[in-house]
Write a structure and sequence with these properties.
By secondary structure, this protein is an alpha/beta fold. The chain has helices at about 35-50, 105-110, 125, 130-145, 145-170, 175-215, 235-250, 250-255, 275-280, 285-305, 320-330, and strands at about 1-10, 15-20, 25-30, 65-75, 80-90, 95-100, 100-105, 115-120, 220-225, 265-270, 275, 310-315, 340, 355-360, 360-365. The chain folds into two domains: about 1-115 and about 305-365, P-loop containing nucleotide triphosphate hydrolases (Rossmann fold, 3-Layer(aba) Sandwich); about 125-280, Up-down Bundle (Glutathione S-transferase Yfyf (Class Pi), Chain A, domain 2), CATH 1.20.1050.
Length: about 375
């Protein structure tokens, strides 16, 4: 699959843009704040109906407008297909999503046009707290399994409700029955979330390790760290362990007014031997781990969807040495299309590279 053309209307700083693309590497270069990242953001939105940067679609519409349109033409050896998304952001959010002029939903977009977005901020996935690593895992699982997003939402809603009841239960035992009912929902939905996470990690851990070895030549280990402890048993065992854990910390949860165990407290553990990368890895090692996570994400999507994701690299090359740049670009040899941004026209070896100058709200092929 190749992204052959991209269309933007009233998206970010672009009033109107039609851009032809080729297989291989497309390098968009120009000064900061000229719209390079917006091009990659448009691609990611066409794949997921979400932005990797903005929390609200309202922020994506060009200043002074209340709607935007994105489009893409995708080519394969035996067919051509089209995606179009019309989004109205005011007074209320409305979208029309079409694949080949037929209405489509988010799972169909993900399967039809998979993308993986790389950013220098990915370093925070490794350096900072567990919430960013959980968000990464949940985002990937939501694209691999549409049912996961529903189960996760059910679990998170239950945690919110349960926390509210715990604060009341601290003052009165009259809330105990309500709490017991929420416990069962928490256990059911939480066990479902854990089951899906553990199923993914059974293969994803090895993919991250393999990718890190490919990038750096070194070894790292990746595992799922649960607040419930050992989860090597069945889903029924997980539910039983969850129930026992909740019972053992009931008094502490009442005192603190929060749910202290469950998937919302879990983490992905990344280590070099017995050393945690978050605390003991160098900046270069941490950046390579972040890159390995994204490349493993691409591999997981490819294996599930049977399509090679387009790789969107936002100013990532400035953070990589020459060896790691070459490793990433070599993915073109395996069929990946790469769109990358840079403030400078980074020299890239090979004939399958096209350069685009970005500035003054325009994009000019060179």
């Amino acid at each position: 699959m190749t992204l052959a053309s991209l269309y933007l209307h009233d998206f970010r700083n672009y009033a109107h843009l039609e851009l032809s693309l080729t297989p291989g590497v497309s390098l968009f270069f120009g000064k900061n704040a000229q719209g390079k990242t917006n091009l990659l953001e448009a691609c990611y939105y066409l794949s997921t109906l979400t932005s990797p940067r903005a929390e609200r679609d309202l922020d994506l519409a060009r200043w002074g407008t209340d709607r935007f349109t994105l489009g893409a033409r995708l080519t394969e050896p035996d067919q051509t297909s089209y995606i179009r998304i019309d989004t109205i952001v005011r007074p209320a959010l409305r979208r029309r999503v079409l694949i080949d002029d037929r209405p489509a939903k988010r799972p169909e977009l993900v399967a039809h046009f998979p993308c993986v977005y790389f950013s220098p901020d990915d370093l925070y996935m490794v350096k900072r707290g567990s919430s960013l690593r959980r968000r990464f895992l949940d985002s990937l699982l939501s694209r691999l399994d549409p049912g996961y997003a529903r189960e996760l939402s059910r679990y998170e809603d239950t945690v919110t409700r349960r926390n509210a009841i715990l604060k009341k239960a601290f003052m009165s035992s009259s809330w105990d029955k309500t709490l017991e009912g929420l416990d069962q929902i928490l256990i059911d939905s939480g066990s479902a979330v854990l089951n899906r996470r553990l199923s993914l990690m059974s293969t994803f851990s090895g993919q991250v390790s393999d990718t890190y070895r490919f990038i750096s030549g070194d070894e790292c280990s990746v595992s799922y760290s649960s607040s419930l402890g050992d989860l090597s048993g069945s889903r029924e065992d997980t539910a039983r362990l969850f129930r026992e854990k909740l019972a053992s910390i009931r008094a502490e949860e009442r005192n603190r007014g929060v749910t202290l165990v469950g998937p919302h407290r879990d983490d992905i553990s990344i280590t070099f031997g017995d050393k945690t990368v978050r605390y003991f890895g160098s900046q270069g090692e941490q950046r390579s781990v972040a890159l390995a996570l994204r490349l493993a994400e691409a591999r997981a999507l490819e294996e599930r969807l049977m399509r090679k994701p387009v790789l969107l690299l936002d100013d990532v090359f400035s953070e990589l040495d020459e060896s790691r740049r070459e490793k990433v670009l070599s993915l073109c040899d395996f069929g990946h299309q790469i769109l990358l941004t840079s403030t400078d026209p980074v020299p890239i070896a090979g004939s399958n590279v096209r350069m685009y100058a970005v500035g003054e709200d325009t994009v000019k092929p060179l």
